[in-house]
Design a protein that fits this description.
Blueprint (H helix, E strand, L loop, with lengths): L15 H14 L3 H14 L24 H10 L2
């Protein structure tokens, strides 16, 4: 992984068992613990379901094709393109 000035230091609290597993895995794989934590977080967060908006808000859409009947479908299409 390439590090740049955008990396931030953080502190996490682990149970003794989780720390033991992390230390053992780092030793066995010859990788820094921080790299293992970053990779685990990347995998976990990539699989998290992003919440969908519960409301489109008030006002008119600049897209005249959006109606109250198709608004949820329109939002889902737009949301999944990102």
């Amino acid at each position: 992984m390439m590090y740049d000035s955008h990396m931030k230091r953080t502190t996490i609290f682990l149970s003794e068992e989780l720390e033991r597993q992390l230390v053992e895995t780092a030793r066995r794989t010859h990788q820094p613990r921080a790299e293992l934590v970053r990779r685990a977080l990347e995998i976990y967060l990539a699989n998290e379901v992003r919440p969908r908006p519960t409301s489109l808000g008030l006002g008119r859409s600049p897209d005249a094709s959006v109606t109250s009947e198709n608004a949820k479908r329109w939002v889902r299409r737009r949301w999944t393109k990102r």
